[in-house]
Amino acid sequence: MPGGHPKAWPHIKDIFQSIAAKSEGEACCEWVGNAGSGHFVKMVHNGIEYGDMQLIAEAYHLLAKGVGLNHDQMAEVMEEWNKGELDSFLIEITANILKFRDEKGEPVVPKIRDAAGQKGTGKWTCLAGLDFGIPVTLIGEAVFARCLSALKDERVVASKKLPRPSVNADSVIQNKRDFVKKISKALYAAKIVSYAQGFMLLSEASTQYKWSLNFGGIALMWRGGCIIRSRFLGDIKRAFDKTPDLKNLLLDDFFVKAMTDCHESWRDVVAAATRLGIPVPALSSALAFYDGYSSDVLPANLIQAQRDYFGAHTYELVDKVGSWVHTNWTGHGGRVTSNAYNA
């Protein structure tokens, strides 16, 4: 993902592309843009990676604690998923990890301390999202999930003191084979949101910094040699080829169809996880983002009224967008209007 001064690229292009991973005979390396655009694109790649890893971990948790599969069975499920729409590097290696045995012939994963580390690129992505006002909520939850996992000693104490759901998994998940399919659909839908949020951030940064990023080209670069390599990167490329100024991947026909097929299963999985007390922060935050993004009306009007009540921050009326007004909510004080202060 090289960026910097454009005159440098011709001098290093052959070197970079000759050593880069190849996909369908093409080098997964191309000029990104000016200044620090290459670093920024790499950062967002890693942010999406955080989200993907957390989503797969939640699917693993649901398969183990909800469905009751052993590690060999979960590996078989992952291998089957990797033959379809979830085909990706992370699903592939997760299957290998789950079936790996130590010198005693026992699965290794249950012996690993459940406290995840991080190097910071997910956090940087979230900070960039906050700076640009882009809701990379799934990536944020993935970062915080690692922070929560690091509180291992506290969690052990809390697990002995705080009440947990007493419902039996069999009463919540009555058809386990069907539920496994629902988990795959929930995972697929949430992964799409992960990429959609990442490209939203890239788009805003490209606009702010005047990078003119080639989003389709970026998707092609991620097809090989990248941790987030997945089957639908080609679909992302086609979406941007068809509509270069596409506002959000979720608005492309291919992804609309995918969400139409998956969102009910997604809801069932999140609801079941909640009843069973299985934390699914990434799956649920992705669903909340999807529901918020697809809602023509949100309760932010009440937030604007609250802000105006306690701080006279003003608000816009539905039928007078661009005109900021203040209401004298308490009956005390004078009438206030603002034409300059855009809150």
UniProtKB/TrEMBL annotation:
EC number from the UniProt entry: 1.1.1.44
Superkingdom field: Eukaryota
Any one GO biological process: D-gluconate metabolic process
InterPro entries registered for this protein in UniProt: 6-PGluconate_DH-like_C_sf, 6PGD_dom2, 6PGDH_C, 6PGDH_Gnd/GntZ, 6PGdom_BS, Pgluconate_DH
Record note on quaternary structure: Homodimer.
Domain 6-phosphogluconate dehydrogenase C-terminal: 38-330
Species whose genome carries this gene: Caenorhabditis auriculariae
Catalyzed reaction equations: 6-phospho-D-gluconate + NADP(+) = D-ribulose 5-phosphate + CO2 + NADPH
UniProt entry keywords in alphabetical sequence: Gluconate utilization, NADP, Oxidoreductase, Pentose shunt
GO molecular function terms listed in the Swiss-Prot or TrEMBL record: phosphogluconate dehydrogenase (decarboxylating) activity
Record-stated family: Belongs to the 6-phosphogluconate dehydrogenase family.
Name listed for the protein in its UniProt record: 6-phosphogluconate dehydrogenase, decarboxylating
Stated role: Catalyzes the oxidative decarboxylation of 6-phosphogluconate to ribulose 5-phosphate and CO(2), with concomitant reduction of NADP to NADPH.
NCBIfam families attached to this UniProt entry: gnd, PRK09287.1
Metabolic or biological pathway: Carbohydrate degradation; pentose phosphate pathway; D-ribulose 5-phosphate from D-glucose 6-phosphate (oxidative stage): step 3/3
Manganese keyword on record: no
Lineage, top ranks: Eukaryota, Metazoa, Ecdysozoa, Nematoda, Chromadorea
